[in-house]
Amino acid sequence: MTPEAGIVFGLIVVALAAFASGRIPVDQVALAIPVILLAVGIIGPEAAVSGLSSPATVTVGAMLALSLGLTKTGAVSAISRWVRTAPLGGPTLRLLALCTVAAAISPFLNNTAVVVVFLPVFLEVARSSGRSPSRYLIPLSYAAILGGTVTLIGTSTNLIVAGMAQARGFEELTMFSITPLGLIYLGVGFAYLFTFGRRLLPDREMPADISGRYDVRSFVTELEVGSASPIVDRTLEALAWGERYGVRIMGIMRGELDIPAPGPRRLIRAGDILMVQGDTKDLLALAREQKLSTPATRVLSRWKLGGGDGRLVEVLVGPGSPLIEQSLRDVRFQQRYDAIVLAVQRHGVTQHGRLPDLRFEVGDILLVHGP
After folding, report:
1. What is the model's pLDDT at position 310?
2. Nearest Cα to 163, choosing from 33, 58, 286, 92?
3. Is the dihedral of CA 210, 216, 217, 221 positive or negative?
4. Secondary structure, 3-state, 58-123
5. Digit-coded pLDDT (tens) for 48-104
6. Which backbone phi and psi does 293 adopt, to 5 degrees?
7. Are 369 and 305 within 8 A, CB to CB?
8. Distance in angstroms (rounded) separating the CA atoms of residues 356 and 358
9. Which of 143, 172, 229, 369 could form a disulfide with 291 if both were Cys (CB 3.0 to 4.6 A apart)?
10. Tens of pLDDT along 274-283?
């Protein structure tokens, strides 16, 4: 093996590891590869920038702009709303109609954009029919993929392969050069999806309460606000318990009234029972300094974490997120978004304590509670 080949091989291994780890943004890793090859003299300046001037690269960028434009203007959403409300018969016929619309749009839009727009529509149809979401989302995914095979711009993969083929002397492909074969793939794929494939779709039920995966309730306690407490008639924003104690108020029980996910401007009243999450030592310090006590009657068993206007969602910190290297305290998360982070999963390990000071990384999954 020549030294140049060894450098290229080693660079490939490092690049794959960087792509897999997600710690460095994908675009930075991709741009670093030709820069390194140019710096060590393996390629020249013309080859280093040739990818940026490739027709396939320019077309992919134009396709993404087109997808964003049609999505932002509401054109795709209008179509999805019509299909969702139109009298199309039973659940199977409605699913067929939805998949047909998704497949009809995919040849001209990025597949990811199509799936993102139609995702809530398919979930709603699944809920209304009482079936597992997996029986609807898997056909959506395949419909978008099959529709993308109909035109040259249906997927970025088509464009890249077409550019590579042209560079090697093959005949240039036009917009609809692959349409005959793509329609065959689409027809055969749909026939399979709605015959034999329907029997193989799994019934994967969504968990009723995702908080169980984060063991949230074991870190929640009840604290009653007495008339002598200094927090009476003060707002949660003014108390700033997240910054001071590292704890979070997840709900308030006021008599028979449940107040899940209270906002930062919510006033605390005497007699309120607060559902507070945090480490034991932080909760003890809070109760001692703010003159809070354990209620005589326990109410945690009847309190629902996702009840009322409160909802639990999992949020993934992706590459380029403004949360990277920031903490909840830095971005004033609760005040800005009127929601609280209950737990963070990092590399499969759940963290509950001192979340306000935790600096987020790419790949972190936040369990967020809010209206």
Report:
1. 64
2. 58
3. negative
4. HHHHHHHHHHHHHHHCCHHHHHHHHHHHCCCCCHHHHHHHHHHHHHHHHHHCCHHHHHHHHHHHHH
5. 877 777 676 776 677 667 767 766 777 766 766 676 666 766 777 888 888 898 898
6. -135, 165
7. yes
8. 6
9. 229
10. 888 777 777 8
Type of residue found at 156: S
Cα–Cα distance for residue pair 141/110, rounded to 1 Å: 12
Strand partners, 252: 259, 274
What six digits make up the tokens of 5? 């080949």
CB 55 within 8 A of CB 49: no
Please report the sign of the dihedral spanned by the C-alpha atoms of residue 333, residue 338, residue 341, residue 346: negative
Residue 144, token pair as written in the block: 């978008």
- Cβ within 8 Å of residue 205, ≥6 positions away: 132
How many angstroms separate the CA atoms of 187 and 312, rounded? Answer: 39
Token readout for 76 is 């795709």
Structure-block tokens of residue 49: 């920038």
- Within a 10 A sphere around the Cβ of 254, how many other Cβ atoms? 13
Three-state DSSP class for 8? helix
CA–CA distances in Å: residue 193 to residues 113, 124, 186, 202: 22, 20, 10, 13
Helix/strand/coil for 369: strand
DSSP code per residue over 148-194:
TTSSTTSSHHHHHHHHHHHHTTPPPP-TTTTHHHHHHHHHHHHHHHT
369 neighbors 312 (Cβ within 8 angstroms): yes
